[in-house]
Amino acid sequence: MSVIYAILAMFGGFMIIGTIAAVHIDRHPEEHENEPEELPRVVISQQVPSVFDTFKGGKD
Q1: In 3D, which of 32, 27, 54 has the Cα closest to residue 19?
Q2: How far apart are CA 46 and CA 22, in angstroms?
């Protein structure tokens, strides 16, 4: 029975912590926004072969 109470207490604690975090993010959104210069840049330099070429037996 104490295991059930421990699980419920942990669940309640996580709900309280999550609510506080959500309220903080909602009040201060400028601290949590990613600006374009902070985003990682991904460059694809090669063409990826199609999966369907494998089933066709390669390029004709």
Answers
A1: 27
A2: 41
